[in-house]
Amino acid sequence: MDRDNNLSKTLKCHLKVRTGPAGLHFFNRITGINFLVDEIKPPINMWSSAPRQVSVALTNACDLKCPHCYVSKFPAMLSFDKLTSWLDELDANGCIGVGFGGGEPTLYPRLLEICAYAVRETNLAVTMTTHAHRLNDQLLYELSGHLHFVRVSMDGVGPTYESIRCRPFDTLIDRITALKRIVRFGINFVVNSKTIGDLDTAVHLATDIGASEFLLLPELAVGKGVGIDEKTTITLRKWVNAYHGSLPLAISENGAEGLPICNPLSSETGLVAFAHIDASGIIKQTSYDTEGILIQEKGVMDAFNKLKIFKKE
What we know:
CATH topology of the largest domain: TIM Barrel
Strand order of the largest sheet: 10-9-8-7-6-5-4-11-12-13
Number of strands: 13
Radius of gyration: 19 Å
CATH class of the largest domain: Alpha Beta
Shape: globular
Helix content: 25-40%
CATH architecture of the largest domain: Alpha-Beta Barrel
Order of helices and strands: HEEEEHEHEHEHHEHEHEEEEH
Strand content: 15-25%
Largest sheet: 10 strands, mixed
């Protein structure tokens, strides 16, 4: 009985409720469990005002030069004090999770501090997207308990990966193996004509090393990226339709057209679902957008509300 009571208290402590057009969304950041009560449709004036998820580019700095990279090369880095204020606002207004990226987030000098703050002072799920090569044992030890999920970029396998990332593939697998000891992780896989042939091998490998998810990212023609061509798109659709593996697949919203997807929150799209803050402090609809609203003294929600008006114009 005591054990059941303790479990109930733990779940209650970590359970966040978000209201929106899909209904009441309950989320536990510790377990990653979501459940939706769609029989209840809250009126629009009761909807959570923040996006469901927000990605944050802590810095534009990166020590790799991937050919498909879309991130601005203009030097920029977010202020720690501004970040903590924005996280507080997003949490209070119904955001469920924040994802730290870049550039390469492990190059942000106060990465450990901002992750620890978000876990300790907010109810946000804290994730990070990284190339993983800077995740040495000391950093992993320090990050333990301060992240709920990590996404690792793995575009291709073996020689394909090495030709894109210019880093040893065996080193990547070694760092992922160390990472999984402290936190759940998923694989991000940019799909283009160069990487499409490695999909089967990549998914099998991701399954074997314990990934929780495999995220497909059809390349967009942004920045250095030339975009996924029609032939590769057709091949990807056939591959997804024929997939019977045990590892859950996910796909970016921009690349989901023509693919069989299951989205219980399909009524929550656009800025209701997602927003991005770049390393210059500009909030945008996605990380690929070239325009947005600069977050100023009135805070992130003020800028977000202006962005919603801007997107409607």
